[in-house]
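Posting for a labmate who doesn't have an account.
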Amino acid sequence: MKQLISPLTHDIHKHPALVRLAHWLQALAIFIMIGSGWRIYNSVPIFGNYRFPLWATLGGNPLQSKIAHMDPGVANALNWHFTGMWLLLASYVLFMAHGTISGHFWRDLLPLRPRDIIRDFIAAATFRLPHRLGEYNAVQRAAYWGVLFAILMMFLTGLAIWKPVQLSFLTSLFGGYPTARVLHFIFMSVICLFMIVHVALVIIVPKTMVAMVFGRASHAHDSLPKEPTTHAGE
């Protein structure tokens, strides 16, 4: 009698409470900053006459705000923007500190080699890149480092356009006030792109959302079948 054995194995993905707190605070802060930032952008557009739709911005009803404060909602948007900025800064520092002290960055997000990124990107583009909970492929590692850098640059360019006189050295470093505004917009766009891809991957692999909400997720799957064994006497 021949016997086929295929035991179950598990991918287990864990997130400590501190990581989950920092993640959701960052998500909230980024939504606040993007919505309010788009309202601020609309008051003085960078790219011609292009403006973001009002429903996608944060700052209150422009007509009511103008009647009450003689302002089309830009002052409210600035208040929201600075609120989001401090929240994002606190959660960013918390996340970076935990990732450094716990070794998460060095253990899970390194090494990062160009040839690995190219290999995994081609595999992902041709739908041949396997996904395992708790493990980051080279494209994911590059994306995480990229968005962490983009958030840092968004802070610095934001400071450069917020205090162009007091922080003139920083504003000059980014090529002056107009260039700093463009760079601030570009880094914001990079973060938006990351969020779109991030949400798409969560839809494809919903177990990652479970881990980020509850702290733990597991996925059972069949391992490769073992070679059939023949019992004595057969």
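Reply:
Got it, the structure tokens are right above this. The beta strands are 2-3, 8-14, 216-222, 229-230.
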